[in-house]
Amino acid sequence: MRIIDGDGHVIEDVQAIQQFLPAPHRDYAGKFLSTLFPPLDHFHSAHLVKMPPEILNRGPVGYDGWMRFLDDLGIEQTIMYPTLGLGYGKMVSLDWMSVATRAYNDWITKTYLERSQRFQAVGLLPLRDPEAAAKELRRMVRELGMVGAMLPSTGLAYPLGAREYWPVYEEADRLGCCLGIHGGAHSGLGFDQLNIFSAIHAIGHPVGMMISFASMLFNGVFDRYPNMRVGFMEGGVAWIFTMLERCDGSYRSQPSADSAIALKPGETVRQHIIQLIRDGRIYIGCEGDEPELPAAISVVGPAPFVFSSDFPHEVSTDSCREEIEELKENAAISAADKAAILAGNAERLYRRPG
Q: pTM of the full predicted structure?
């Protein structure tokens, strides 16, 4: 059975990326900066000592390490998201955001994409300037050959349904490319003082997904830009149940006069969401061992779910192999649905614009 990894992660080589900066910024970064992006949050720290030894003691994972991982598991291709760059929404300098995101995009293209077709990537955008971000999205897709861009679910000045980002969505709609929304930076979501990282990690990703999803849904982003595909990555699958229930019930009991959602006569919000999913507009990253996956398929169908390895963050080759086998052996999921989750849906989400 074919496998395409819909959400892998590159470990950024900061010094190598700095070489793609323009000269004044490159000189400054080389002398004063140890990283290009803000820290994810104040949570990702000492919890790492509890990670399994095979992950904690693993050496740097670069091009060769990724190739071994793909070969060992028989994965055809991976779509790479950043690691340090997951927090890039918190960048405050417009100038620095512009040069840093462009340098990242050039670096990952040269280091991975141009060396093997088994690597694909979503790039980063200078979202402090949406017009410039739209221009960079066009460059990434048309010149660098990327499949789209990553939008952070947290850290930005406005939630993702805001008009400020519509120039980016207009360009994505023209290009017919994808936008992958990803969490990872968990501050500012209302649980800054939680004292156990497991609790923070458990709710940080899905809460970020739900905020982004609800903002885009009720501001009519999915309806306004029908050629744009959006993936909601690494939040699991269960959050979509909450969105179906709460968005539908809340709109019914408290319909907002300024909501821009384009419902057909007699259509409910729940039905609208499910139709967007079935039309190939909305995708959801999932892992192979998620217990609610069969139930989610029964409610919205198999179309949105994209297998995601999350390598090399919290998984090893062995643990990822176990997840893939668990999905393959799940008797509650049909063979056709397994094939879609393991490869077909990722192909639809990340297809290159023609």
A: 0.95
Domain assignment of residue 58, yes or no: yes
CB 165 within 8 A of CB 179: no
Strands 178-182 and 229-233: parallel
Residue 252 burial by Cβ neighbours in a 10 Å radius (0-12, 13-18, 19+): exposed
Give the list of residues 6+ apart from residue 122 with CB closer than 8 angstroms, or none.
79, 80, 81, 146, 147, 148, 149, 150, 178, 179, 180
Q: Which two tokens stand for residue 53?
A: 């030894």
- Identify the residue whose tokens are 């821009």: 260
pLDDT digits (tens, 9 = 90+) for 6-45: 999 999 999 999 999 999 899 888 777 778 999 998 888 7
The Cα-based distances of 276 to 231, 273, 279 in angstroms read 12, 5, 5
Q: Is 34 within a domain?
A: yes
Total structural domains in the chain? 1
CATH number of the domain bearing residue 301: 3.20.20.140
In a domain, 184, yes or no: yes
State how far the Cα of 301 lies from the Cα of 299, in Å rounded to an integer: 6
Binning the chain into helix, strand and coil, the percentages to the nearest 5 are: 50, 10, 40
> Whole domain around residue 209: which residue ranges?
4-349
Q: Which of 143, 128, 134, 122 lies closest to 98 in space, CA to CA?
A: 128
Q: Extract the tokens encoding 227.
A: 């050629």
Q: How is residue 205 written in tokens?
A: 């990703």
pLDDT digits (tens, 9 = 90+) for 55-107: 766 777 899 999 999 999 999 999 999 999 999 999 999 999 999 999 999 99
Residue 354 within any structural domain of the chain: no
3-class DSSP assignment, residue 170: helix
CA–CA separation, 7 and 178 (whole Å) = 13
